[in-house]
Amino acid sequence: MKRTRYSEEQIIGILTEHEAGVKCADLCRKHGMSEGTFYAWKAKFGGMTVSDAKRLKALEDENAKLKKLLAEQMLDAAAMKELLSKKW
């Protein structure tokens, strides 16, 4: 996964600047990012505080671990079914 240049705290700081009245184009020029990136951040982090963003990141990490465990269990179960379905 690609590593971002900005932390969640920085992203929320940029979004709060926009809420304070700074234009999107000015923010993008100042921070060296595209408007598409800004609007993607706004969709994901809009209205959040720093603690909310940290909690979201922790939940996303936990969800990824659980999905990986589930996939491994499903593979094991499929292999066991295949083994048991064969005639001896």
Automatic annotation (TrEMBL):
Signal peptide residues on this chain, from the entry's feature table: none
Gene Ontology biological process: DNA transposition
Transmembrane portions of the chain: none
Name of a matching Pfam family: HTH_Tnp_1
GO MF annotations, alphabetized: DNA binding; transposase activity
Domain of life: Bacteria
PANTHER family: LOW CALCIUM RESPONSE LOCUS PROTEIN S (PTHR33609), TRANSPOSASE (PTHR33609:SF1)
Protein name: Putative transposase
Lineage of origin: Bacteria, Pseudomonadati, Pseudomonadota, Alphaproteobacteria, Rhodobacterales
